[in-house]
Write a structure and sequence with these properties.
By secondary structure, the chain is an alpha+beta fold. It has 3 helices and 9 strands, in the order H-H-E-H-E-E-E-E-E-E-E-E. The strands form 4 sheets. It has a 3-stranded antiparallel sheet with strand order 7-8-9, with no helix packed on it. Strands 1-2 form a two-stranded antiparallel sheet. Strands 3-4 form a two-stranded antiparallel sheet.
Length: about 110
Amino acid sequence: MLWGWRNVVCNKEETSCPANQVFRYNLTTCQQSCRSLSDGDKYCLEGFTPVDGCGCPDNTYVNEKGTCVSMSYCSCHHQGLYAQPGESIMKDGKRCVCRNGRFQCVTVDIHPH
């Protein structure tokens, strides 16, 4: 049996990740991304064979710029556009604010009493 082969063979890859990422075993297409918070897992491929490579550390998400950020810094995605954290949009008669990668919406009363 071979023991510790990854440490010798893969050590270069483990240290070549971008500064804000870490080397991970068994990456899939369903990695944590800010966009997945808004859109769900509709971009995951069924039957994708996991691979080794660079990904975000635990409790962080890759944003649209390829940077790993905490959830509170995730932008929100809607109809091809990105809204920054704290930014609001109107959506289906509701005012929606981007928080933690998801829009939180409230109905807007256009006829105040």
